[in-house]
Hints:
Elements: E1 23-26, E2 29-33, E3 40-46, E4 57-67, H1 68-71, E5 75-81, E6 84-92, E7 95-99, E8 104-107, E9 112-116, E10 121-127, E11 133-142, E12 153-157, E13 162-164, E14 167-173, E15 175-176, E16 179-180, E17 189-196, E18 201-205, E19 211-218, E20 221-223, E21 226-228, E22 233-236, E23 242-246, E24 253-260, E25 268-270, E26 273-275, H2 278-289
Antiparallel strand pairs: 1-22, 2-3, 3-4, 4-11, 5-10, 6-9, 6-11, 7-8, 7-10, 9-12, 13-14, 14-17, 15-16, 17-24, 18-23, 19-22, 19-24, 20-21, 20-23, 25-26
Pfam families: Pirin (PF02678), Pirin_C (PF05726)
InterPro entries: Pirin, Pirin_C_dom, Pirin_N_dom, RmlC-like_jellyroll, RmlC_Cupin_sf
Keywords: Iron, Metal-binding
Amino acid sequence: MSNVEAAPQFVDCEHHTHPPTDVQHLAPKLVALGEGPDAMTVRRTLPQLERSFVGAWCFADHYGPNLVEATGGMDVAPHPHTSLQTVSWLFDGEIEHRDSGGVHDLVRPGEVNLMTSGHGISHSEVTTKQTGYLHGVQLWVVLPDHAKDIERGFQHHRPDVVDVPGGTARVMVGGLAGATSPIVTETGLLGAEVVLRPGATWEFDVAPGFEHGVLVDIGAVEMDGVLIEKDAMGVRDAGLGHLRLSNPTDGDVRLMLLGGEPFEEGIVMWWNFIGRSHEEIVELRDAWQAGDDRFGDVDGYRGAFRRLEAPPLPTTRLKPRFRRRR
């Protein structure tokens, strides 16, 4: 999904330290993608002022369930990305993906699509005609500096449902509960959908060098004893080798579990670009507006607009953001 805000924000972060036993609570920010009454609204938990990343996960939008007949669904014209990987995961609906690497694929519930932008890519996303409701998460992973200009690429995987104490899991990235995803990333990551039955508690081993986040889709969950409600994210720093998730409700809870090695590099993230400086973002925007071939062309998109135009840059200088405020 594109970040199609008309005036994308940037954050100047400062540094705070938290012991690994603390669970940080991140409330969602409502963001309208596009303009007008049919604009799609998402709940954004990353990035925020207090935390930019969970591992290398640098962007988390949660949307739906939206009735496509009422909202118009998703029709995002070709748009660019650099120095990141997009990770698409649906709970309901279907999205047609096309990109300038020549990939034409569908995003379906329970199947992960990971697109690598590297030096540059463009892609489009359109809800299919048979979609009644659209519901899912759109996640971005920042590429480390040594891999920021790698070749564009695309990976698709349908993970099996794995039984865990009190529920189930689907591992889209990394490894959990004896299951390992074949998806390749440039930093150590974990990404999984977890469903816990009413009253269930699951305590399990995790990599002590990973920080972990829990984004709640349905219900509410206690993360190491701290209640994280629907649409919010709980985050715990690296340092402990186990995690405890409990469902205190009388219905199923569904959540996205994200983890990864702490990402300590500073990045400038603006609109659909990730760069390392203000000057690089200016260059990337100019290249996209000029039709530079670093982003390629998307074949087969039949929407009203040939491509998205980049919004104006802010009048102030873009500053790097880091894992925590500094």
